[in-house]
Specification:
The chain is mainly β and 694 residues long. Among the domains are: 134 residues, Neuraminidase; 89 residues, Immunoglobulin-like. 2% of the residues lie in helices and 44% in strands. The protein contains 3 helices and 63 strands.
Amino acid sequence: MKTFLHTFIVCFAFLAYQSLNAQNKGWVWQNPQPQGNTITFLAIKPNGLAIACAEAGGIIASADQGNVWTGRLTATSQDLFAVSFSSNNNGWAVGTNGTIVKTSDGGIRWEVQKSNVTAGLQSVYAVNDSIVYCVGRQATILKTTNGGSSWGRLISGFSVFLNGTAFSTEKNGWAVGNGGIVMATTNGGDTWFTQFPLVEDNINLRAIHVFSNGQAWVIGDKGTIRVTTNGGANWAIQQSPVQTDLYAVHFTDNLHGWACGEKGTILATINGADWQDISLPIEENLSAIRFFNNNNGIVAGKNGEVYVTNDGGKNWIKSSKGERLHLFDVAFVSDKKGYAVGDSGIIMTTTNAGDQWQLRTIPEKITLRGIDIVDNNAAWIVGEFGNILKLEENGEKIVPQLSQVTANLFDVDFVDNSYGWACGENGIVITTTNGGSQWKVQPTEFSTRFHAIYFANRNLGWCVGDKGVVISTSDGGETWQQIDVGTQNNLRTFQKIGTETIIVAGDNGFARKSNDGGKTWNSLQLNTSQSIMAIRFYSETNAIFVGEGGSSALTNDGGATWRTQFTGTRNILQSLFVYDDSTAWAVGQFGTILKYVPINQIQTSIADNQEDNAVLSAQIFPNPASDELYLNIQSSEKEPIIVKVFSSTGSEVRATSYNQMNIRLDMMQYPTGIYFVVVEQDNKRITLPLSVIH
């Protein structure tokens, strides 16, 4: 049935996750992988875990040198431009509007810190767990000496746009920026001085890499590369084989280095002086590069593209994947099997809850706008030019149907294997009583575009569209009556709950709720001006919506208040499907598929961290996990480590004692779901939420 039919029986666990930890956004990327935003920076933690930051608050991590990535929780939708770790646990990321986020658990969760500035921050460098520097627009230089609890602004004396910073010691550091400027400090940023001459023609410098001995490289526009071996007293020109702009640079030692930039540019040196062009044959800009050693490295950039190498950059393998065609609707027939449809006749299917998606296309390459599933052998898809497709034989067979119209169709709804309706532009509503073998037009007396249609049974139905039009029928669509909801906003989504409750929503954050079948309406204050593309109440009080700009929010009080859910994207989210196991999927622009994996409330006895955890810390990765899970534990004690795994209901499913701090767990024995990993030592306990997705 239609998406929202399933939502009535979604369990309360969907919201319990929010009460457990409000910043856990729940939305994780399923397509494209690792995510769809431009990756802006890469960092490697001391334990070898790669961390990348991206636009729209995106942070992803890889434990296998860039082949597989998992999302992290950032609590911000601001673009992030740089990330730096001082240790395995402590790291900072910075971005637009003075955004600073910090992690204290190795990058699993990130919390916003107050920077007291609004200028964009372009670069961050963590000297240690206490001292961190940031630079950015409007000559902004920030410093903290207490791990970010408070930040102070340093005065450089120069009004420049700063793009990069790095320090060789607590006191000795550099900042580079537009106009070819290089500023240096020898007293921890109290005073700054320029190091000239460096470049000509006002070339912008983008990044700097510094060694503890004061040797440093800077890169910038038009292939600019400069090096110093004496702390910046003198800078030497290094010949570049390209004239393209360079955005990032990284060295593993004073001989082996790499730089990347626009249009797939990658440069490499094996002697610290001579650079070779090893560029990729792509048009995308590459803005981030890091190497684990002289052979294994990662480069990333536009639209989340990621490439890895194991031979120093001679050969690159694309690790990012997925389709980027726009998707307009998603539906699941079970908790495992689902479909997403979109541009150019694309039909994406999954049989493992979205862990992998397979691409199918139809020859006509028409845009497919809506899908409704009755069972494994009955699903209908509607699209451009009146096209209707039926999926049969467990979705393997695609059968075109004759709709009798040429107008674009936007939505379809079936109440059983025989009775169904579709709607579209020019006030079109069509119906079938024989599973689609024949369709006929049902006049509505409206010329508006209808975006959504829903039938509760063979008689009772509703349709919503542009200019606030809502129509209803009690005779299967033979006649229609208009319902006044008091708006001229285009309406995009409709839902009926129980016998009398109706929800409509659409452009400019408009949403209204009726508790008497549409006779009277109350506004829902969604606290957004973005268009609402889909809203789903899965009980009288609990709901979620998605829309333009990657917007999403949750309520558990019937819509009186809403909590923003960070999706990690600004792409339009066109459709939402909530299944009865409290899992949700959203699809949208550029092939975006997101999955919401909430964490159920766990028994207090195992959820409460006990007393002082100062001498015990732990992190897990990847999360979500599939085949295996790694635990990195830090402790000042010598007692054995006990690792327990609990199900989402609080049942203990594993308890093992270890004497080492780095632990690998085989996750193949655990079904897909939500778990809690509890690390115990003496009287100390840490609880970490975990998603397992096979």
